[in-house]
């Protein structure tokens, strides 16, 4: 069982930056593939970025040149650095984890955080 706790959301103006953090705890946390998803009102939850236990990353096309996912295995923490934020990035951002990166590629992670709100004003 892996428990995920996100932090770092908030309100920012367009063009600004935020960094989200997600601390994982529990058995297998350090070996888990991890990622970020987001859900805006009235829209389905979507993949944003993921990182394997070995550090390989993948991004949604809409964020590829602006967001960076990274992990600190010593702290069991994954980060999402978000730059050049746009109003359309506004959403609840969820941290997710799975035993295998395959689960995240299929958008079916085993574990979810509670979510953190990101609001980008124009």
Describe the protein.
With 122 residues, this protein is mainly β. It contains one helix and eleven strands; from the N terminus they run βββββββββαββ. The strands form two sheets. Strands 2, 4, 5, 6, 9, 10 and 11 form a seven-stranded mixed β-sheet that branches.
Question: Descriptors for this entry?
Answer:
122 residues, seven-stranded mixed β-sheet, four-stranded antiparallel β-sheet, 4% helix
Q: How would you summarize what this structure contains?
A:
This protein is mostly beta strands. Helix content is 4%, strand content 52%.
The percentage of residues in β strands lies in: over 45%
H/E element sequence: EEEEEEEEEHEE
Structural class: mainly beta
**How many helices in DSSP terms?**
1
* Distance between the amino and carboxyl termini: 40 Å
Gyration radius from CA atoms, angstroms: 13 Å
The averaged pLDDT comes out at 95
Low-confidence stretches: none
Major sheet, described briefly?
7 strands, mixed
